[in-house]
Fold this sequence. Notes:
By secondary structure, the protein is mainly beta. It has one domain: Trefoil (Acidic Fibroblast Growth Factor, subunit A) (Trefoil), CATH 2.80.10.50.
Amino acid sequence: xxxxxxxVTLFFFLFAFSTKPSHVSASTGEPVVDISGEKLKAxxxxxxxxxxxxxxGLSFEDFGNDTCFHVVVQESSELSxxxxxxxxxxxxxxxNTSINLNVEFSDTIIGCPESGVWKITKRISEALNVGTNGxxxxxxxxxxxxxxxxxxxxxxxxxxxCPYPETETIVCQDLDIFFYGDDGKRYVGLxxxxxxxxxxxxxxxxxxxxxxxEMSR
Length: 217
Ligand SMILES: *[C@@H]1O[C@H](CO)[C@@H](O)[C@H](O)[C@H]1NC(C)=O
Ligand SMILES: *[C@@H]1O[C@H](CO)[C@@H](O)[C@H](O)[C@H]1NC(C)=O
């Protein structure tokens, strides 16, 4: 893969922020389960809720003067489940821990022509954050790949950015929450200890026929 200029810039920031390296094991992991104990299914819709109380689910928002909602945030209210996502695992239908997968918002993004596929981007300050307009599938940018890992707390999971294909130089890194200025938004980005709040999550199957899902498909 020949990195474009933007990719080279991202390389730089990945080095600059890779203070907490970790490696995905060669194992194929184990099935990720939702809060009902059911295995997650590829292509189905789930809310990514906070594992700790007092915070909401993951959603999309605008940043600064943007007219389009395209950065991934955590809702600050526990009452908001956020927007459901689909997990699209690499070369398999198993949503296992430690398997590379694409993540895509199930809903059309309000006011935004972009795709709902997650990718790592440098949109906010010096931090690398998770945004939308990625492309799912093999052969696309390796900034579009994530994994789910078991967290230390019982039953909770962590989300990681984890490039595919694997490289020697870019390590998998936890996604955590950071803040920018006083806009009150809880942005999801690559962990930079000291400035970030840990993000531990659980998954709840989205009921497309009710609740506050409001699927706009
Ligand atoms: C997912 O995990 C299960 C149980 O450990 C295993 O049997 C299966 O092969 C794994 N799937 C993949 C694609 O690695
Ligand atoms: C938003 O626009 C105002 C006025 O043009 C500008 O001063 C400000 O820096 C912009 N904010 C961001 C985050 O770009």
